[in-house]
Design a protein that fits this description.
This protein is an all-alpha fold and about 150 residues long. It has six helices and no strands.
């Protein structure tokens, strides 16, 4: 359990750093990182229970997208600002790497197996995101928005 928490914290820092590189507003970096850490936490917890990577990725992508939409509504910023860094830890880079490595070595079945896994994981990210993105904007009004005060600097 401690390993999962440490990985989630490191994932949050990585996602915040990714947001810095892509010029996210400074006041939103914490929330971008938090969403990435949450995505990895959900994924890791589900993988520890079931070992089904596709369903864990689907649930984690849905959780990240839900939080991104909630943050978008309450922070009055585009949801992609939180969504893209949030799904970053879920991207199936290792499966693609193993597929390319097997292809270079000439292992056809291993290449197909890893490529298919990468496609499944990428599809799970897409489906998990779409399931939440199709919800109307008014759905996120369930929690009242905090009014911002305009302070002059």
């Amino acid at each position: 359990m401690v390993t999962i928490l440490v990985q989630s914290i490191v994932s949050a820092f990585a996602c915040a750093a990714f947001s810095v590189v892509f010029n996210a507003p400074r006041r939103e970096l914490f929330w971008c990182g938090l969403n990435g850490g949450l995505g990895w936490l959900v994924y890791s917890m589900l993988m520890a229970k079931s070992e089904h990577a596709v369903s864990a990725t689907l649930a984690a992508a849905a959780a990240v997208t839900l939080v991104a939409r909630l943050l978008s509504y309450h922070r009055q910023a585009p949801s992609t600002l939180y969504h893209i860094p949030g799904i970053l830890p879920l991207v199936p880079g290792m499966a693609v790497y193993h597929a390319m490595q097997a292809a270079i070595r000439g292992f056809i079945l291993e290449t197909y197996s890893n490529a298919l896994l990468a496609l499944k994981l990428a599809g799970a990210i897409g489906v998990g995101s779409i399931l939440i993105l199709v919800l109307p904007y008014s759905f996120f009004e369930l929690i009242p928005r905090r009014e911002r005060t305009n302070k002059k600097v």
